[in-house]
Write the structure tokens for this entry.
Amino acid sequence: MGGTLVGTPVSPPLAAKPNGSLQVAGFAFSATGAVATGKPTADDWRQAMAFAERANSGVMWWIGDLLRIGEAQYSDVASEYEGDGKFSYGTLRNVKSVSCRVNLSLRNDKLTWNHHAIVAELYVVGPNGKQTKASAKAQKVWLQCA
């Protein structure tokens, strides 16, 4: 996967365009790719790469958290989304379950979403040390394997 650019600041800020693309530092991101807009610099490229890496690591959390919030606040709209076929019912159920089980304060950006999904299986009702210890152990094992 090469070197990581995570931690590189994404500046100028992210901007949504009328066509649905996202603009970051001289690059437009769409559902099907990224293109340079204008003449981006090497620093612009680094910022765009950092954004793409952060987006990749966060998208499952975003979907899960939005499903959780949607179900709590807009249940009729959330149920429409769950039936639109973009994701299987099982995928949506799993993503939402992990987001519900792993509190924001226990999420570790050095671990993948899949690592957290495994830790979520150790969840016990209420915040407790087990989940925190499992996350720390998963990070240690992952770092040893990297």
Notes: Strands lie at 15-16, 22-24, 27-30, 33-36. Residues 1-6 have pLDDT under 50 and may be disordered.
